[in-house]
């Protein structure tokens, strides 16, 4: 089953891909080789994009000559502190994914920044973003953040990724009316709430939390994708106003009945595997979903039926895929 990753946008890049713009020296050379393996060497001061991924860099320095830089990639390094970026005012995108950073700081001068990726670090607090009012995408997955705060002023924010942290409550998002993508999977959230102002939200991910009820989503009328797998939900409910849903993920919950979905006329993907559905009569409720293309119901009691696939296809003729297998 295609489950979205914690960070949807990640694209793998080859280490030291932009050698024409910058490089780290080879640690295997002799003692008189000049810069150490941790030094950043800028070859082209006028470059727009600099890739220093996998460089074993442990300190941000020697970047002052980059007067035109727009995109700076420093993934998979050993950086412990954000510093020495004050002169890089032209930066639009900064990636510090998978380093050893403990604090968001020293970003005040990066007023043109639109994309900031600090995922897979050791950050404990959401802070230091006061001047980044042009920020559109903020990635902070796999850190140690306990509280959503200090982001309300980011009124241009389109995407917020806070998956795999230690967050217990959805809060302090009132000012993010432009937000379209909110990822809060793999936290410790017990209740869906405080989302009323996010009227432009199209994707909400709350996988692997501690939810027991689907609730407080009446204002999310533009919602297109909803991911609620690996929680403790028992009933499908309170989706009456979410009529634009095309993907609904409720896998690995405690649901016994399929109901309250007949109004979701645009639904294409319905994932309900690893639940407790045992009554075929309740599966009949899928018959009204004329756009339903994919359904996952494996590892429910009904899936043990020898004619399981044939019955599903009769109930929902529009299906092109049942579980991981295409329909013939």
UniProtKB/TrEMBL annotation:
Main location: nucleus
UniProt-listed Gene3D superfamilies: Ribonuclease Inhibitor
Family matches, as SMART domains: LRR_SD22, LRR_TYP
Stretches for region Disordered: 1-36
Cell location: Nucleus
Function statement: Cilium-specific protein required for cilia structures.
Protein name (database record): Dynein axonemal assembly factor 1 homolog
Organism: Psylliodes chrysocephalus
């Amino acid at each position: 089953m295609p489950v979205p990753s914690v960070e949807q946008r990640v694209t793998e890049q080859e280490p030291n891909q932009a050698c024409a713009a910058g490089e780290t020296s080879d640690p295997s050379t002799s003692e008189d080789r000049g810069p150490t393996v941790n030094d950043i060497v800028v070859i082209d001061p006028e470059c727009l994009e600099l890739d220093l991924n996998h460089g074993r860099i442990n300190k941000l320095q020697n970047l002052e000559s980059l007067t035109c830089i727009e995109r700076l990639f420093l993934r998979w390094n050993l950086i412990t502190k954000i510093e020495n970026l004050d002169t890089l005012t032209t930066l639009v995108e900064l990636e510090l994914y998978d380093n050893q950073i403990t604090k968001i700081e020293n970003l005040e001068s990066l007023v043109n920044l639109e994309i900031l990726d600090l995922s897979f670090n050791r950050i404990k607090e959401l802070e230091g973003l006061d001047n980044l009012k042009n920020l559109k995408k903020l990635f902070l997955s796999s850190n140690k953040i306990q509280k959503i705060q200090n982001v309300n002023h980011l009124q241009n924010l389109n995407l917020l990724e806070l998956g795999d942290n230690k967050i217990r409550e959805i809060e302090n998002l009132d000012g993010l009316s432009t937000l379209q993508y909110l990822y809060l999977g793999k936290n410790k959230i017990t209740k869906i709430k405080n989302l009323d102002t996010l009227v432009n939200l199209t994707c909400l991910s709350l996988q692997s939390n501690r939810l027991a009820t689907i609730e407080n989503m009446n204002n999310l009328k533009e919602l297109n994708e909803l991911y609620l797998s690996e929680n403790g939900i028992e009933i499908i409910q309170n989706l009456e106003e979410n009529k634009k849903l095309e993907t609904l993920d409720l896998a690995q919950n405690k649901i016994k009945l399929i109901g309250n979905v007949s109004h979701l006329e645009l639904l294409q993907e319905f994932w309900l595997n690893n639940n407790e559905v045992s009554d075929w009569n309740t599966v009949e409720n899928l018959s009204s979903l004329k756009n339903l293309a994919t359904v996952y119901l494996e590892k429910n009691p009904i899936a043990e039926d020898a004619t399981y696939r044939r019955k599903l296809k009769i109930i929902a003729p529009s299906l092109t895929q049942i579980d991981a297998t295409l329909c013939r």
